[in-house]
Design a protein that fits this description.
Blueprint (H helix, E strand, L loop, with lengths): L14 E5 L2 H4 L12 H5 L18 H14 L4 E5 L2 H4 L9 H16 L3 E7 L5 H4 L7 H18 L5 E6 L1 H10 L11 H25 L5 E6 L4 E3 L4 H14 L1 H9 L4 H7 L10 H5 L5 E5 L4 E4 L8 E2 L19 H14 L4 E5 L17 H19 L4 E7 L18 E3 L6 E3 L1 H12 L4
Parallel strand pairs: 1-2, 1-11, 2-3, 3-4, 4-5, 5-7, 6-8, 7-10, 10-11
Antiparallel strand pairs: 8-9, 12-13
Helix pairs in contact: 3-5, 7-9, 8-9, 14-15, 15-16
Length: about 450
């Protein structure tokens, strides 16, 4: 146990950062040889994205990154989680490399270095090259092999500048939601067998990224997955409800975290999926289950779980309509999620270094009035979550960092630009940035390393 008390500062080595992703902020969707991504295609399908918003301009970070890093630095933020757009590097997914894309990220990383900001780079944050989707996308091993080559290239090119690598962002979202429910690009509605196979291919891609970082990353490099695990919060913090929440957590996460840590799919998972179980080839899990240096967790919401009755291991509770939530309808405000996600991953899978790689909240009506955006709702979200994070550290759970989603309002996928997650406001007419009240608050937290 640490000696942290309620008001003590976060440990000196604790990392405070902000996060964003290429497709959501860069714009320049067809500039300097970038290829079409599945989101560039999907956003043009009528009815798929709110307001028909496209990624063409986004926050124009492509042309404004220098100013954005100056603003980040002025807030005292020294760590930034970004992603690299695969279609900028390989416009066709696996054809010729696009030197302009490489040069762009070189300039961007150099600017970060000038501003004293450490990069945490995600290799894949959902913007699959459309050319690969045309060959089957994540349903096919063609995509896995292309990703392996892309990961090799990126780590070789940028390994001298980047020491913290994240393999993939939120496997569930680009497999289940993209190929099963169809709400995210490419918007397919396949059966369970196909969806389970996309997830297996994503695990393989994760394994290739770990391999690439080990082979080409150079000294001092670290790598981990960012997972949006399904999080359970015990209704009461009693041994029975905690045990129930643990059993639920293991069940819901068995196909990703469970499989990676178990070295294969569990007998329970294989029995449950039956004929829909993924096809596994010899050697797959040698790649998938390589040790990593940390686990990244994107934490937004949770399910309340209590001990079951009549021999059931648990009961998951449906939330009443009046339970508080953000404007994102899926985002119920459960700050304990951050504590329990970290604790479960530490206790159930033995993780010894955990980073919250995203945490934030989406709201619709945020306007600049008199030069400021008074987003007290986001300030409170942040404060409540940091409090639970602090509790985790005090309880000896190895959480080593926190990245707030997001630095600036951006393209919230199928919700378009109307749903804002930034601590910096973006005016999409003028592209002007205005730090919100939450940005000032976060700057104070980062500076004092204390929850104010
Ligand atoms: C998780 C995703 O990684 C990110 O791209 C998205 O904008 C946030 N959640 C908010 O929904």
């Amino acid at each position: 146990m640490s000696t942290l008390t309620y008001s003590s500062p976060f440990p000196p080595s604790f990392v405070f950062g902000v996060a964003a992703a290429a497709a959501q902020i860069e714009g320049a969707a067809f500039t300097d040889g970038k290829g079409e991504s599945i989101w560039d295609r999907f956003c043009r399908v009528p009815g798929k994205v709110a307001g028909g918003d496209t990624l063409d301009v986004a926050c124009d970070h492509y042309n404004r990154f220098d100013d954005d890093f100056a603003l980040m630095a002025s807030l005292g933020v020294k760590h930034y989680r970004l992603s690299i757009a695969w279609p900028r590097i390989y416009p066709q997914g696996d054809g010729p490399v696009n030197k302009n894309g490489i040069n762009f990220y070189r300039r961007l990383l150099a600017s970060m270095a000038r501003h004293g900001i450490t990069p945490w780079v995600t290799l894949f944050h959902w913007d699959l090259p459309q050319a690969l989707e045309d060959r089957g996308g994540w349903t096919s091993r063609v995509t896995v092999n292309a990703f392996a080559r892309y990961a090799d290239t990126v780590v070789k090119e940028f390994g001298a500048l980047v020491k913290n690598w994240i393999t993939l962002n939120e496997i569930r979202c680009f497999t289940l939601l993209a190929y099963g429910l169809g709400s995210k690009a490419p918007g397919r509605r396949e059966g369970k067998a196909v969806v389970n196979q996309t997830c297996h291919h994503a695990l393989l891609a994760h394994g290739h990224a770990v391999r690439a970082v080990r082979e080409f990353g150079g000294p001092g490099t670290r790598v981990g997955l960012t997972d949006n695990c399904d999080v359970s919060v015990p209704v009461t913090e009693t041994p029975d409800d905690i045990a129930a929440a643990q059993a639920w957590f293991l069940d819901k996460n068995e196909h990703i975290l469970g499989a990676i840590h178990g070295g294969g799919y569990s007998p329970a998972y294989l029995a449950r999926t039956g004929v829909d179980a993924p096809q596994v080839q010899p050697g797959d899990f040698d790649l998938i289950s390589q040790p990593t240096d940390f686990l990244g967790l994107n934490i937004y919401t949770a399910t309340y779980v209590r001990s079951g009755e009549g021999g059931e291991p648990y009961e998951a509770l449906a939330l009443p309509a009046s339970y508080p939530r953000a404007d994102s309808p899926w985002l119920n405000l459960v700050p304990q999620a951050i504590y329990w996600a970290a604790r479960m991953c530490h206790e159930l899978y033995g993780h010894r270094s955990i980073y919250v790689t995203e945490n934030g909240c989406g709201y619709d009506e945020e306007r600049v009035v008199g030069g400021e955006v008074v987003d007290l709702h986001r300030r409170d979200f942040l404060r409540n979550h940091l409090r639970e994070l602090h509790r985790a550290i005090a309880d000896g759970i190895p959480v080593d960092g926190y990245f707030l989603w997001s630095f600036v309002d951006n393209y919230e996928w199928e919700d378009g630009y109307g749903r804002r997650f930034g601590i910096v406001h973006c005016d999409y007419e003028t592209l002007e940035r205005t730090p919100k009240l939450s940005a000032r608050y976060y700057a104070d937290v980062v500076r004092t390393r204390t929850i104010l």
